[in-house]
């Protein structure tokens, strides 16, 4: 049957992992912020900023990894703004996050337009190339599906393990999880609630920005207006779906990537019967369904959205 | 060591002055990107002011731009009052516009005093339903409304696109994906001859005053405020939180839907996917600048509209990217957030640590 053929093709899984990569960065970033108790709705703008800043750095002559670093710094910068507003000042995390998204998006667009005032077609860079690892890349199936991805996909996979290890195997991770559940207990340990929360938001935002950078420096080779197109919001939904666990985040992003790659292929099979928009809606509808499925048992970090002030219990 | 002390009773100067100061500060901050873009700063500010207020035409353009912003600002204000985080005004606006097109392009016809209310009701209903869905998911199943309303924006835009290429497509549009024009009797008439500012502005002003009275003077308004301030306490005192939330959703979504009606039947005359340059999101900024007060929304919508129209005309004149307007609007949101903090807390610089 045709569906089985689609699912068994290495090129299908190659596409699924490619689509999942920016989501892996985004969900990991959102998860780190939320585990520390801060919802970061700046994610959509931070994706845009990472995409623009990383691309721009490479276009101005930096190396590809230099661009990745610039993207992470840009993400960290906007994360710091969100962190200052929501942690020591304790302002609404929803509104501050939307504000950071508006700021990061408009600043990225303004910078791009100012640097390139009259280009009709977006200039291109030479992006990350598919890896060619001896032996591994030549393996049947998995060689094409996994080991011929770019270095940024490998970075995303490594980050899943690093994030999981830090969160569950180190004292720092214990403190981050505690600060999102019961900040006063962290304070009683003599640790800084503000420091942990701000640090987590900055690092998480830097990770989100890498998701944006992947789009302009690996999946494509140019920056377009509106190219993020809700990917950040999808990550917020997937974070709930993943119950704030890095391993489940990987699975959720891969499932999502597989479904998206599948609907693109389905479109070529049955596209004549449905308008293309039906397929384009799928990722968003799928995200909402994912939220509904886990809503009943979603185990939100207990202090998520709750500001904490020093000297007050 | 910096400490924050709560203020017991911030005076009127703080309460009303801080949003104004935040807005002015955001405009002044725009000097930095202007300077980095190599623009003459003073000229740029001058051009922004004349662009928004320099002539009857430019003021009419500004008021035209303010009309949907008042309505989406009210939509955000009433929802945020009840802590219903409706970030979906953009999608509700498009659904409202589409409903207006469905009933307002010739299916039914009548005099203006029938047709205008008909398309308004259709648009408000469509917008309201768009928000009642996510609200029910929130109250019944605990699904976070922030993410669902955000994602619905994208779904609605694709849906509108699909309809404009299908059932609602204008056969006379030479292949452009746009709807048939709204019939003359349903068009919101212009308020001034040869100007674009239209009846939608009056509708928006009436909506703002009506909402102000509703929130302040009715039992339902009181219940909305009570739920927003402390849902648990409101529930304990016998207020049905679910019912109140659905009322808020109907109001908020309905107002955003009206913004779509006003744009499609007042400003544009037909529906296309570029109907709104983000009025739904800008409405959040408008509401926050107004400190969620319905009357304040009018003033802050005028401010945001002046920024958009002024910066647009300035950027055309001296070749600076018009994204500067979005940048100023975003910065004023963050400034007013910080300003709101400073009205509630005093900042104290403690020397005790260094002394002792």
From TrEMBL, chain A:
* Membrane-spanning ranges: 6-31, 38-58, 64-87, 94-112, 146-168, 194-216, 272-295
Q: Which GO terms describe its molecular function?
A: transmembrane transporter activity
Instruction: Give UniProt keywords alphabetically.
Output: Cell membrane, Membrane, Transmembrane, Transmembrane helix
Matching entries from InterPro entries are given as: ABC_transp_permease
Record's subcellular location: Cell membrane
CDD domains found in the cross-reference section:
TM_PBP1_transp_TpRbsC_like
**One protein family per Pfam:** BPD_transp_2
The annotated topology with respect to the bilayer is: Multi-pass membrane protein
Q: Which GO cellular component does the record give, naming just one?
A: plasma membrane
Protein name, UniProt field: ABC transporter permease
UniProtKB/TrEMBL annotation, chain B:
The membrane topology noted for this protein in its Swiss-Prot or TrEMBL record is: Multi-pass membrane protein
Q: Where in the cell is it found?
A: Cell membrane
| Provenance organism | Thalassospira lohafexi
Q: Which residues cross the membrane?
A: 12-42, 62-80, 92-108, 114-134, 146-164, 197-215, 244-261, 281-311, 323-342
Q: Which GO terms describe its cellular component?
A: plasma membrane
Tell me the superkingdom of the source. Bacteria
Q: Which GO terms describe its molecular function?
A: transmembrane transporter activity
The entry's keywords: Cell membrane, Membrane, Transmembrane, Transmembrane helix
Q: Which InterPro entries match?
A: ABC_transp_permease
Q: What name does this protein carry?
A: ABC transporter permease
Claim: Cell membrane is one of the keywords in the record:
yes
Entry-linked PANTHER family: ABC TRANSPORTER, PERMEASE PROTEIN (PTHR47089), GUANOSINE ABC TRANSPORTER PERMEASE PROTEIN NUPP (PTHR47089:SF1)
Task: Indicate the principal place this protein occupies in or around the cell.
Answer: membrane
Which Pfam families does the annotation name?
BPD_transp_2 (PF02653)
């Amino acid at each position: 049957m045709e569906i089985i053929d689609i699912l068994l093709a290495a090129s299908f899984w190659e596409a699924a992992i490619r689509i999942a990569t920016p989501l892996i960065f985004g969900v990991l970033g959102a998860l780190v912020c939320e585990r520390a108790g801060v919802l970061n709705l700046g994610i959509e703008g931070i994706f845009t900023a990472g995409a623009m800043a990383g691309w721009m750095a490479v276009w101005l002559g930096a190396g590809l990894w230099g661009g990745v670093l610039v993207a992470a710094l840009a993400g960290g910068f906007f994360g710091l703004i969100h962190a200052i507003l929501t942690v020591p000042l304790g302002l609404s995390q929803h509104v501050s996050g939307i504000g950071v998204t508006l700021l990061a998006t408009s600043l990225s667009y303004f910078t791009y337009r100012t640097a390139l005032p009259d280009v009709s077609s977006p200039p291109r860079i030479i992006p990350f190339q598919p890896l060619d690892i001896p032996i591994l890349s030549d393996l049947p199936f998995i060689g094409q599906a996994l080991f011929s991805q770019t270095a940024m996909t490998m970075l995303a996979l490594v980050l899943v393990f690093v994030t999981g290890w830090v969160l569950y195997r180190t004292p720092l991770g214990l403190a981050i999880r505690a600060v999102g559940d019961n900040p006063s207990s962290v304070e009683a340990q003599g640790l800084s609630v503000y420091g942990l929360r701000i640090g987590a938001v900055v690092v998480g935002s830097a990770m989100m920005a890498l998701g944006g950078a992947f789009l302009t420096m690996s999946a494509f080779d140019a920056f377009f207006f509106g190219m993020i197109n809700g990917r950040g919001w999808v990550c917020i939904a997937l974070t709930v779906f993943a119950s704030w666990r890095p391993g489940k985040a990987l699975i959720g992003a891969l499932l999502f990537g597989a479904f998206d790659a599948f609907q693109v292929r389905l479109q070529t099979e049955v596209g004549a019967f449905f308008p293309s928009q039906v397929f384009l809606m799928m990722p968003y509808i799928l995200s909402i369904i994912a939220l509904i499925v886990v809503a009943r048992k979603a185990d939100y970090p207990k202090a998520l959205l709750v500001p904490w002030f020093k000297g007050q219990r | 060591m910096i400490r924050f002390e709560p203020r017991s009773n911030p005076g009127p100067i703080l309460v009303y002055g801080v949003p104004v100061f935040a807005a002015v500060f955001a405009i002044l901050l725009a000097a930095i990107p202007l300077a980095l873009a190599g623009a003459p700063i003073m000229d740029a500010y001058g051009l922004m002011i004349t662009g928004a207020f320099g002539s009857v035409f430019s003021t009419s353009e500004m008021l035209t731009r303010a009309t949907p912003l008042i309505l989406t600002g009210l939509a955000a204000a009433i929802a945020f009052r009840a802590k219903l985080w409706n970030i979906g005004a953009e999608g509700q606006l498009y659904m409202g516009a589409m409903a207006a097109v469905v009933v307002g392009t010739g299916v039914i016809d009548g005099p203006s005093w029938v047709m205008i209310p008909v398309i308004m009701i259709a648009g408000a209903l469509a917008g309201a339903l768009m928000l009642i869905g996510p609200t029910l998911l929130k109250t019944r199943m605990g699904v976070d409304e922030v993410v669902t309303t955000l994602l619905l924006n994208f779904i609605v835009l694709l849906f509108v696109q699909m309809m404009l290429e299908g059932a609602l497509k204008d056969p006379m549009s030479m292949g452009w994906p746009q709807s048939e024009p709204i019939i003359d009797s349903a068009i919101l008439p212009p308020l001034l001859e040869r100007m674009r500012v239209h009846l939608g502005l009056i509708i928006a002003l009436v909506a703002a005053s009506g909402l102000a009275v509703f929130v302040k003077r009715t039992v339902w308004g009181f219940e909305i405020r009570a739920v927003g301030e402390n849902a648990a306490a409101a529930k304990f005192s016998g207020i049905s939180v679910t019912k109140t939330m659905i009322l808020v959703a109907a109001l908020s979504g309905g107002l955003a839907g009206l913004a779509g009606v006003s744009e499609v039947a007042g400003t544009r005359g037909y529906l296309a996917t570029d109907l709104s340059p983000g009025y739904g999101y800008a409405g959040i900024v408008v509401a926050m600048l107004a400190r969620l007060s319905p009357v304040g929304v009018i003033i802050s919508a005028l401010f945001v509209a002046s920024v958009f129209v002024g910066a647009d005309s300035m950027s055309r004149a001296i070749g600076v990217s018009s994204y500067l307007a979005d940048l100023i609007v975003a910065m004023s949101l963050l400034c007013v957030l910080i300003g709101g903090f400073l009205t509630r807390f005093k900042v104290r610089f403690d020397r005790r640590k260094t002394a002792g």
